[in-house]
Amino acid sequence: MYGKGLRALSIATVATMTVGLVLVFFYAPLEAEQGFLQKIFYVHVPLAIVALCGFVIGGLLAIQHLRTRDPRWDMRSYVAIHMSLIFAVGTLITGSIWAKGSWGHWWVWNEPTLVSFLIVFLLYATYQPLRFAIEDPERQARYASVFAITAGAFVPMNFIAVRLSTAYVHPRVLGSTSNLPAPMALTFLVCLAGVALLYATLCKYELTVKHTRAQVRALRRRLEGTRPELAQSRPRSAAPALHPAATMSARTAGRPG
Amino acid sequence: MALPPLAELPALPLHSAGKYVAAAYVVLFALVLIYVAIMALRMSRIERELGELLAETDSAKEDPRASSQEDAPPLPSATSTAASAAGASQRESPA
């Protein structure tokens, strides 16, 4: 169910990212102040934007989970946040590399954008331990959804607060792409599209794997009815547990008799 | 002698800025590569579990003691689904 369209999405991602890389290194002009070092901008900023948007999307999916109590929404919210965390790690590492090359330091504590992003990252770093700490799958899903909604609301608030504060060093991107020269703006937008597609592809990939695994577990549980030696309890996990009804009902419910 | 415009002068020489730029892009691709490798491991585990389920259903068919239990819940859909799922995985595998 989740695997549908995965191949087309993967091809689109690879194509867009390849075009983006070509534009970065062969089309976009060197920036006046930072020169070649500014090429990091085309990977660092899209990663940050997509990661923050992914956190917000995770919150929106969690709202849907609390509304419907459907574990599939919890799974989607979990995967969105999980993937955003990975992208956030990429943002922090590429940002540190850029800071070292540009400012001479790996990290600058008095720069609000950096510190606020680190706070958001650390906040979401507690998401998995929170899930793992709760054994009951339904309670785990409910509490995780509440967390995702609260933290998801914190992300734009944090973003706006940083904007309102006086940023004196960190370059501004959102709302100022019109200030970029046209070749730079085009390159940036292609890279942003590529990273967004990468995010969507990896989310879909992980959802497909998790859904397939849940189906295999549901099959195993059914076989446990006749073969007790096959009985195997689900190990404690931070990942959401899809109910057998959610995975197998689509195949069995529609059958006559 | 006129100086070149500022835009043509990189802040850092290419040989020193290049390593930072390369490192940033390598980080992105390393992250993606590690993630895909982990997912591939998970997929292979699922494939192995499907193979085990197929073997169990085959042995259940051959063993009349297991298949003729009176209190066993009906399993035609489960076994056929397992067989078809495992069969599908076998069809997809290059071997």
List the helices and strands and how they pair.
The complex is a heterodimer of chains A (257) and B (95).
Chain A: H1 6-26, H2 41-68, H3 71-103, H4 112-125, H5 127-133, H6 137-164, H7 182-224, H8 244-252
Helix pairs in contact in A: 1-7, 2-3, 2-6, 2-7, 3-4, 3-6, 3-7, 4-6, 5-6
Chain B: H1 14-62, H2 64-67, H3 76-92
Helix pairs in contact in B: 1-3
Structure description:
By secondary structure, chain A is mainly α. Chain A has one domain (6-171, 180-223, 236-251). In chain A, 71% of the residues lie in helices and 0% in strands. Chain A is built from 8 helices and no strands. Chain A has helices at residues 6-26, 41-68, 71-103, 112-125, 127-133, 137-164, 182-224, 244-252. The longest helix of chain A is centred in the C-terminal third of the chain and has 43 residues, at 182-224. The model of chain A is unreliable at 246-257 (pLDDT under 50). Chain B is an all-alpha fold and 95 residues long. Chain B has a domain at 32-61. The longest helix of chain B is centred in the middle third of the chain and has 49 residues, at 14-62. Chains A and B meet through α2, α3, α7 and α8 of A and α1 and α3 of B.
Name the helicity range of chain A.
over 70%
Q: Class by helix and strand content of chain B?
A: mainly alpha
N- and C-termini, Cα separation of chain A: 24 Å
Largest sheet of chain A: none
| Count of strand segments of chain A | 0
The topology string of helices and strands of chain B comes to HHH
What is the number of domains of chain A?
Answer: 1
User: What is the largest interface, and how many residues per chain?
Assistant: A-B, 46 and 44 residues
Q: What value does the Rg of chain B take, in angstroms?
A: 29 Å
Q: Number of helical segments of chain A?
A: 8
Q: Termini of chain B, distance in Å? A: 71 Å
Strand and helix order of chain A: HHHHHHHH
How much β-strand is present in the residues of chain A?
under 5%
List keywords for this structure.
heterodimer, A: mainly alpha, globular, B: 74% helix
